[in-house]
Design brief:
Blueprint: H1 3-25, H2 31-52, H3 59-70, H4 74-82, H5 89-117, H6 127-178, H7 184-196
Helix pairs in contact: 1-2, 1-5, 2-3, 2-5, 3-6, 4-5, 5-6, 6-7
Length: 197
C-alpha cells in the first residue's frame, strides 16, 4: 500500500468510528444533550483528521464549519420535534436521529477528508463551495449509517445465539455431572473451556 492509500484507510476508519459514536449519541433521550454530544464527536473527528493530514486544527473554525454545513440539516431539527411525541418519541426519534447523526458525521468527515487531501486548511475552507458536497455525502451517509446499524444488529443477534448455545451446553454438562458421568473437576474444566472459547 502506498502512503496515500494508508492515509485514506486511516481517514476512513476515523470517520467510521465517529459515525458509530454519533449514532450512539443519537439515542440520548434529551433533545439538547444529543445535539451537543454529536457536535463534540464531530469536532473530535475533525481534530483527528487534521492531525493525520498535518493541518493546524482550529477548534473555533471547526465549530463554525460544522454549524455552517449541517446547521439546517434534518438531524438537528428532528431531534427536537420527534423526541417530544408522547410514547414513541424517544424510541422512534432515537432510531431516526441515530441514522441522521451518523449521516451528518459521515458527510462532514468526507468533506474534511477531501479538503485536507487536496492540501486545504481551515484558512481556505470555502463553506459555500463544499456545502453541495456535504449534501450529497449526507444522502450517501444515510445509507452507510443504515448498513452500520444492520451490521450492529446482526452482531448482537450472533452474540445472543452464542450465549444461548453456551447456556444450553452448560446445562447439558451440569446434567452429566449430576448423573455422575462427569466428576466435579471434569465439569469445571469443561465449563471453563466452554466459556473461554
Amino acid at each position: 500500500m502506498s502512503e496515500k492509500e494508508i492515509k485514506e484507510a486511516n481517514a476512513n476508519s476515523i470517520i467510521r468510528n465517529h459515525m458509530i459514536w454519533s449514532m450512539g449519541a443519537g439515542f440520548i433521550p434529551v433533545p439538547i444533550a444529543d445535539f451537543f454530544a454529536v457536535t463534540a464527536i464531530q469536532l473530535d473527528m475533525i481534530r483527528q483528521l487534521s492531525r493525520m493530514y498535518d493541518v493546524d486544527f482550529k477548534e473555533t473554525s471547526g465549530k463554525a464549519i460544522i454549524t455552517s454545513l449541517s446547521g439546517a440539516s434534518v438531524a438537528r431539527m428532528g431531534s427536537r420535534a420527534i423526541k417530544f411525541i408522547p410514547g414513541i418519541g424517544s424510541i422512534l426519534g432515537g432510531v431516526t436521529l441515530a441514522i441522521l447523526s451518523g449521516a451528518s458525521t459521515y458527510a462532514l468527515g468526507e468533506v474534511f477528508k477531501s479538503h485536507f487531501e487536496s492540501g486545504g486548511t481551515f484558512l481556505d475552507f470555502d463553506v459555500s463551495r463544499l456545502k453541495r458536497m456535504y449534501d450529497e455525502k449526507f444522502e450517501k451517509g444515510k445509507e452507510v449509517a443504515e448498513e452500520l446499524k444492520k451490521q450492529q444488529e446482526t452482531q448482537k443477534e450472533k452474540v445472543k445465539v452464542a450465549e444461548s448455545d453456551i447456556v444450553v451446553k452448560l446445562n447439558e454438562l451440569a446434567g452429566l455431572r449430576d448423573r455422575g458421568i462427569l466428576s466435579e473437576e471434569e465439569f469445571q474444566q469443561l465449563k471453563k473451556k466452554l466459556i473461554e472459547g
